[in-house]
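Narrative of activities, Objective 1.

The group set out to show that a structural description can be obtained from nothing but a protein's sequence at a throughput compatible with the screening campaign. Below is one input-output pair from the validation batch, recorded exactly as produced.
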Amino acid sequence: MIGRLARATILTAICDGLFSSALNVFAYGSTVKRLWQGVAAVPFGASALQQDSMAWVGVAMHVGVALAWSTVFLILYELLPPLRRIVAAPLGMLAVAAVYGPVVWTVMSFHLIPALTHRPPVVNGRWWTQFVGHAIFVGAPIVAMISRPRGRR
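Output recorded for this entry:
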């Protein structure tokens, strides 16, 4: 179980991190460092955007969030036989990922981030890009790694 959780956390952090970094650089004309400073700025405030070292704090936070959401899915997967049956069905993993990833983004953007920043979410093109991207780059790695059959190497 710990192995599945570790794989889900690491793969999700890498996939989502690469997605967000590429989006930040190529679509939004910013930098990777600025992305991770922005992540750190959520709980630490705007001053994080001026400190180079806060980029590493943002990366660490990103891994922690990947761990948290992987843990939530692992608990749900272990406690809910219907979820395991859905995931095991043909295309079930993709269907669950297509729901779980956007749920993660919705909870983060409508609840956690506003609670820390005291600002309401802005639903625009970037928000929708993250909504869809989370199905692929968050939901899929979490569901795939957590639902791997036990004992398979």
